[in-house]
Amino acid sequence: DLFKRMKETDDHFSERFYSPVSPSSSSGLEQRHVWRFSVRPRGGKNSKEHVSAFLWSYQSDYEREKGLSSRKIRYSVDVYRSAPSDSPGSTPNLVKLKTKRGVETNTFNFFTHESAWGSSEFCALSEIFPNNERNQKIDLVININFFESAQPTVINDGLSNNGSVIFRRYSPSLDKYFDNEAYSDVEFSFDCGSKLKASRVVLASRSSYFESMFEGSWKESKLFTIPIEGVKYECFKLLIRFIYTGRLADGLDFDILMNLYVEAEIRNLGELRDLVSSQIVCHHQITSENWEQYLILGWKTNNRVLKEMGLKYACDNWDAVKDTVGMQRVLSCGVTKWVEELMLARFFGYKSN
């Protein structure tokens, strides 16, 4: 069904699952790793005779609190095809398929394109469909094994590790003081009429942007109510809450994330920007209706992951995007080198740097 009904570029994601599945103690429950698995039934642009498969890592609450921005794991992914049994009414046999991956060890970095590992040529369609009978109904069983020899690592070298920086700079969490009038000496006002209260000390101690704002040279340093223009209240509230807690809620709307990424970039909140980028990449599907947003934002903010996603999607789906409003936006952006990069990728093939 997946092979027949899904488009060439569609990924099918599993629900979140955990390792270990059954921890030996209640404390182990907190330390479980969070994962999702994705398959693309028709592979990539140059691997349409294969199924692509990737294992995706997600930072758990425990890893976030402990300052872990990476996870080193030894694992294997096995695929089985369900074959009819010789005896009527008995359980079908499982036939293990040949794949391009065996037991391997990888470091999953939550805030980069290395948050997922896998292969665009994971398993050949000829393995899945015997005798090339692709109208045949096939059930696949995917078994992921995690081995205990590789443990998650904490990198304590300071600024080279996003997770450690987030943990130190935004620890402890001050969530109970967030938007609390009793602990506030400044408020932000918005076009919608909403107001958000905060503490100058908290903001300045955890953000160089707000430290500059309140030190005296900016006009805002003299104001109790600071107007925030051109930014939605919901977006700015997420930004301030991050400064207080070092956390970002899951499941945020795509447009909110895009706006929040820009605000984090403007206000020099690199850690928030990386978290937002991770959510965009891991939780939202790039489509013909939003591909140019990935590309333009990647160009504007020098985000290689977002830029490459946009370029790859455009090249793989040129007929679907060439006459869209998104393409008009890209071609009329006014930056010649961006348009040249897209055209070069189109005519000579896209290659990741």
TrEMBL record:
InterPro entries: BTB/POZ_dom, MATH/TRAF_dom, SKP1/BTB/POZ_sf, TRAF-like. GO terms for biological process: protein catabolic process. It comes from Acaulospora morrowiae. Coiled coil: none annotated. Signal peptide: none annotated. Residues 1-146 form the MATH domain. This is 4505_t:CDS:1. PANTHER family: SPECKLE-TYPE POZ PROTEIN (PTHR24413). Residues 184-248 form the BTB domain.
